[in-house]
Amino acid sequence: MIGFHQDSIKLIFYLLVCIGSIYSIxxxxxxxxxxxxxxxxxxxxxxxxxxxxxxxxxxxxNIQTDPQTQKFAGLKENGCLVHKDSSxxxxxDSAAGxxxxxxxxxSQNEGILIPIWTGECNQGAQGYxxxxxxxxxxxxRGFDTGIITGEVKVDNTPVAKLxxxxxxxxxIENVTEVxxxxxxxxxxxxxxxxTQKIGTFPAAAHxxxxxxxxxQPGSHTIYYQNDVGSTTLNGGxxxxxxxxYSFEVK
Length: 250
Prior knowledge:
globular, alpha+beta, 6-stranded mixed sheet, 2 domains
C-alpha cells in the first residue's frame, strides 16, 4: 500500500507539471501573438524599409528646437510627438536624448516605426554640396559609429536588442539595419539641425530600426532605450535616451 501511495503521488505531481507546462506555453503564445515584426524581407504595407526611413527623416528634419527647452519642439512630458504617414506611426528620434513619457492614441491598423539610432547626410550640409551618393551614404554611416546599445520593450517585455561597436555588430535581435537609396531631403524650415540649408537636396541615411506590426486594441506601452558611448571613430560623442510611449490602440 505504501508503494501504491507513493506511485499515486508521483503520478499526481507529473500531471501537475504537465498542466503547468501547457499553461506556460499558452500564456507565452498569447504574449508572442501580441507583438510581431516586419522582417527585412517583408516591406511594411508594401513600402520598402528604405523608403520608410526616407519619410522618417523628412519628418525629423523639420522638427524645430523649442527655444525654452532647447529640445525638439513638441517633445514634452506626457505629450504626443509622433508622425503618422499613411499606415505607419513614427516615434521620435532617439537623438533627442533624455527621459521622456508620451501618451498617444493610434489605430489598430497602424504599424509602428521605432528608431534606435540613425544618421543621415545630404548635399545641403556644409562640405557635402557636391558629394556623390556613395559619399553621402558613407557619411551617414559614419554618424552611426561609437559603442551603441539599444533595447525595445513592449508591455514591459523585451522584444528587440542591439549591440554595435563602430562597424562591428555584436548583437541584432528583431532590429533592421537600413541603408537607404538616394532620396530627396526637404528642409521646409529651420529645423533642429542648425548647420542645414533650407531647400531640397539629394540625401542618404542609415540606421537601426524596429518595425512593429499593428498592436491589438487596448492599452500598450512601448519603451525604447539607447546608449551611445565614445570611440576614436565617433570623436568622443555620447548620447543616451529612455523614451516611453503609452498607447491607447483603437
